[in-house]
Amino acid sequence: MQTLPRLAALALLAFAVAFPTRAQVAPGTVLDGIAAVVGDEIVLHSEATALAQQASQGQPVTNELWSRALDELVRQRVLVIHAERDTTIIIGEEMVQQQLDAQVGQMAAQAGGEEALEAYYRKTMDEIKETFRQDVRKQLLAERLRGTRMRDVSVTPGEVRAWLEQIPPAERPEVPEIVRVAHIVKVPAATPEVKQAARDFASALRDSVLAEQATLADLARRHSDDPGSGSRGGLIEDIELRLLVPEFAAVAGSIALEEVSQVFESPFGYHFLRVSEREAGKVTFQHILISVEMGADAADIARQELMVLRDSVVNHGVPFEAIARRHSQDPLSAARGGYVSDPRTGDRDIRLEALGGQWKATVDTLSVGDVSEPATVRLLDNAGTQAVHIVLLQKKTPPHALSVETDYALLSQYALNDKRREVFDQWVRRLQRDVYVDIRSPRYTAESATES
């Protein structure tokens, strides 16, 4: 029986399904078989197992967790069936191809590179993509259908207050310092000479490691510009390849274990690395990052330009938002008048500590309404772009107990998420009445083999 996932919602789990980790699979567990039939589609036991293993985060899979995974897969099939019936939902080929490229690319990273993925499937990358094309289309149809239903779900102030009142006052967490900020950004271009100097320095450090003149860990502690790993000797443990930027994942996912890589470039700068463990889409490695510093001349020019813009705001009354729209080089905030929001949630109120040390050093010098002097910063984009900015502090809320008065936006998001889950569950249950569903294997045990 085919053991690979049939639905693109599980495409990222294809490698885990095909190669189950022995430590995660209990003796006597059924690795495949028909767990459920939904319409004319089947849900494989291996699909539910893979999804449950992912959700368990390395802990043993329980019957309850496996059953929830199976329920989720059944719901996905139900959504697909109804989405295919809805003639108003149209998914273009360009969108399918874009999603297909992204998912197969992540599968390749988890498998250890494109060659490893091709070897497993015994197909070329183009043929692998064709294998998943219809599944990707189904996934996008289901997501579009769900989006149209959830779009109109909202919460009232009363519902937000009721959500908080479910939590006893003594158990409500303390909210750390929250700020609302805007900024105007200039991004000085790194000169070719500066980029070459960074690459040369990284190459020299690599040569020292290869010649055994110093250890990678020692050099990382002294020279790496990665604040998250430098103090730990460049060590990053058990991280999913899909969470790394593509340039980094390509090297970490394909290099031989214990081999020191060539120097390569990512949006963060120049790296080299050594992988010690790689299994089930996760990798442990040491690396050194040498970031590309903006040239001193370009940075000085950026600071001078920002001082002129700051003077227009502080001394001549020009609205900060208007200048940000015209002059800021941060694409995430410029169109909104410089308003900074959490890139994951879109919230304007952001934990100060989450912004990082450079932001904190600047904001700590300001009172509400102040505009800072020019300061260096890493932008909140995926590349951590180095820039110079001036900051307007619009609001500051000190650490406090969670309350509707001070944290309405945060609470409304929590309440909305819960309400959406409830509405979605009820909606899918109604949809399911019009679809044939037969649960064949309800438990994560060997006995389910006889039920298949």
Report, as a whole number of angstroms, the end-to-end distance: 12 Å
* Total beta strand runs: 13
Rg, nearest Å? 26 Å
Largest sheet: 4 strands, antiparallel
Question: What is the fold named in CATH at topology level of the largest domain?
Answer: Triger factor/SurA peptide-binding fold
- Percentage of residues in DSSP E strands: 15-25%
**How would the global form be characterised?**
globular
Just give the CATH class of the largest domain.
Mainly Alpha
Helix content: 40-55%
Give the CATH architecture of the largest domain: Orthogonal Bundle
Number of domains: 3
Number of helices: 16
Low-confidence stretches: 1-31, 446-452
| Strand line-up across the major sheet | 9-4-11-10
- Summarize model confidence as the mean pLDDT: 82
Q: Look at the helices and sheets and give the structural class.
A: alpha+beta
Write down the secondary-structure element order: HEEHHHHHHEEHHEHEEEHHEHHEEEHEH
Task: Characterise this structure.
Keywords: Isomerase, Rotamase, Signal. This protein is of the alpha+beta class. It has three domains: 8-151 and 425-451, Triger factor/SurA peptide-binding fold, CATH 1.10.4030; 175-190 and 294-401, Chitinase A, domain 3 (Roll); 192-290, Chitinase A, domain 3. Helix content is 46%, strand content 16%. It has helices at residues 14-18, 45-56, 63-85, 93-111, 114-121, 125-150, 157-165, 192-210, 216-223, 246-252, 296-314, 320-327, 352-355, 357-363, 404-432, 448-451, and strands spanning 34-38, 41-44, 174-175, 178-186, 235-240, 264-266, 269-279, 282-290, 350-351, 375-378, 386-397, 400-401, 437-439. Strands 9-4-11-10 form a four-stranded antiparallel β-sheet, with helices on both faces. It has a four-stranded antiparallel β-sheet with strand order 5-8-7-6. It has a three-stranded antiparallel β-sheet with strand order 2-1-13. The longest helix has 29 residues, at 404-432. Residues 1-31 and 446-452 have low confidence and may be disordered.
